[in-house]
Known about the structure:
Helix content is 0%, strand content 60%. The strands form 2 sheets. Strands 2, 4, 5, 6, 9, 10 and 11 form a 7-stranded mixed beta sheet that branches. It is elongated and about 50 Å long. The chain is mainly beta. The protein has strands spanning 2-7, 10-12, 18-26, 28-39, 46-51, 57-59, 67-72, 77-82, 91-101, 107-111, 115-119. The protein contains no helices and 11 strands.
Amino acid sequence: QVQLVESGGGLVQPGGSLRLSCAASGTILSIYAMDWYRQAPGKQRELVATITSGGSTNYADSVKGRFAISRDYPKNTVYLQMNSLKPEDSAVYYCNADIVSAIDLRRYDYWGQGTQVTVSS
């Protein structure tokens, strides 16, 4: 059993900052990539940022230069630092992780429950 638990969402004014966290726990052997996605009302879920097991990162064009993804490997935790937030960043943000189970050694894709980010004055 593996769980991803997100935290850090909330209401922030335009230009403000938030830091999201996502901690993976359970029967984990190893974790490959960890990602952040977001979904705004009436829109498709989109990939925001990715960090690989080796630390390589990739960002959606819309957040480059404003968001930073990082990872604490011993804690199985991924972070998303969001700066210069805009109203169009408002969405539910989801954590995703590619995890090898310690039980059967197979890879599974896990999702967190989502955390709401609202950027408004």
